[in-house]
Amino acid sequence: MANKGQKKGQDDGLNDQMRVRRDKMQALRDKGIDPYGHRFDRTDTTAQLHEKYGEMSKEQLEKEHVEVAIAGRMMTKRGKGKVGFADLQDRDGRIQIYVRKDVVGDDNYLIFKKADIGDILGIHGDVMMTDTGELTVRASHVTFLTKALRPLPDKYHGLTNVEQKYRQRYLDLISNPDSMDRFKKRTQIVSAVRSYLDGNGFLEVETPVLHTSAGGASARPFITHSNALDIDLYLRIALELHLKRLIVGGMERVYEIGRVFRNEGIDTKHNPEFTELETYAAYWDLSDVMTETEELFRSVSNKVLGTGKITYQGQDVDLDKPFAREHMVDAIKRVTGIDFWTPMSTEDAKKLADEKGVHYEDFWQTGHIINAFFEQFVEPTLKQPTFIYGHPIEISPLAKKDPKDPRFVQRFELFIDGNEYGNAFTELNDPIDQRERFEAQAKEREEGNDEAHGIDEDYVEALEYGLPPTGGLGIGIDRMVMLLTDAPSIRDVLLFPTMRPEKKLSEDEL
RNA sequence: GGGUUGUUAGCUCAGCUGGCAGAGCAACGGACUCUUAAUCCGUGGGUCCGGGGUUCGAUCCCCCGACAACCCA
Where is Mg(2+) 2 annotated to bind (predicted)? Predict the structure, then answer.
């Protein structure tokens, strides 16, 4: 699609509009005007003008005669012979400009007259109010800053072609203010997350993206190669194991917001690379992390949106109220009537799964099946923020056992509107237990689970020096942004989502 | 992995039962000194996603492929 414009039209590969714009660019050069100009001093952004002068009267503005300089992309244009109006757009919004031939002069007016929608202009002028009450900059001089050689998307409908929005995000940002707003909010959300954690004694750190073994989560990694070391390396699938090494090292409270990579399916909730937040705090347990998680969502929402009461895809969600807390086994019992507190063999559990139509793999044990029951029957019903805790040990190789019932671990996940938003545990700090969990994972891998963890000897060695009791948390930042900006797809909160390249035929394919 | 839908001018979209490819915006020429999806008159612009097939004739029907969106596992 991106190449479409280059292939159509005449022999030069240009369509009529592109040809006209190139001609206009040359015409500017011929007049001694650089179509790709230089620095331009702005006095205000469009938003600042609306803020400062939007409430003033026509007469007041006329009297004060405020001289300003603004710059932006011309989005619309309304000519009227010897006078013209246009809307200039900058990062924060738009403002109308008013250009009169008798004010700017014949030559300068011609520059405005010949300028195309999409060109970037600088305007010196004074602030006025039109008869219809629109705040406007009356130009005293038009400075040409950048020629756009391609036409912009439809000025009224914007860019709606989803594929093109993702592949050419800049066009989406230019023509769809909602999209621009969402990405600004994303920045504010990440900033608010940092602000909360920085204010609670956490140290932001950076750990390696290239790992010698991919651990900390269940996922297939991307593999790459180091020429210098002549070894294969894995792009990280989680931040966990390095951050906990830093807790061993005495940093006590650390967090990282970083890109992780999982070589798995792509859909509305998954992109191969995404941004994860993980935090670790020494001497905390699960209840501390629940408090942290709750405060984090609440404070970020209130800081960025000014409220904790939000709507996600039609579902009202209240982040201000205390989040519900329920044990996974209790939740399954509440919804299905099936009681997994009763000790049962793998065979018994598989029989229950057959009866209820729950799919399972050969290598699954009771814990895997409990989790499948939860995902199938309970997860979609959790609309308001709910902590589900007490996961089966089989699916949680890095969490500390529940001292009262070693079938389960001290772990929780946060669910809102049927989706998972956070995953946390009291960290397993017993190196002997950790080695056994890794060995169980290695066995699972042999039995066909290619997402199972490998044995990370170096990490076990770190634990042998002593990891203090620690509470850890992982939150998918992209999902959080989706929730707070009411985005239906993860691609709507990623500036450049992963896309398959458009097919280009190579020589040997022809 | 399976299913459904989509791909037509720079953008947004029509296109009937298979019969010369259409509109709005954008562009070009002209008129217009407070317009705002400016208006009025005129003009140009197409590899109908790609490749095969059926047919006198295919944007349309059939097959294969590309990319995307949505749903399901």
Answer: 420
Same domain assignment for residues A123 and A270: no
Is A278 annotated as contributing to ligand binding?
Answer: no
The mean per-residue pLDDT over the stretch A266-286 comes to 96
Q: Which two tokens stand for residue A188?
A: 């504010």
Strand B and A63 CB separated by under 7 Å: no
Instruction: Report the domain count for chain A.
Output: 2
Same structural domain, A148 and A181: no
**Hey, which bits of A398-499 come out as E strands?**
401-402, 405-409, 411-416, 419-426, 470-476
Say if residue A30's pLDDT is above 50.
Answer: yes
Mean pLDDT throughout A495-509?
A: 70
Give the closest nucleotide to A10 (alpha carbon vs C1'): B45
Interatomic CA–C1' length for residue A356 and nucleotide B72, angstroms: 19
Q: In the structure, what pLDDT confidence band is assigned to residue A14 with cuts at 50, 70 and 90?
A: confident
The residue segments making up the domain with residue A472 are 174-323+384-492
- Give the Cα separation of A391 and A368 in Å (integer): 10
Report pLDDT for A504. Answer: 52
Cβ(A169)–Cβ(A58) under 8 Å? Answer: no
Which amino acid residue lies closest to nucleotide B50, measuring CA to C1'? Answer: A503
Q: Are A241 and A459 in contact (CB under 8 A)?
A: yes
* Residue A50 belongs to domain with CATH number: 2.40.50.140
ipTM of the complex: 0.93
Which CATH number characterizes residue A412's domain?
A: 3.30.930.10
A436 annotated as belonging to a binding site for a ligand:
no
Position A253 in a domain: yes
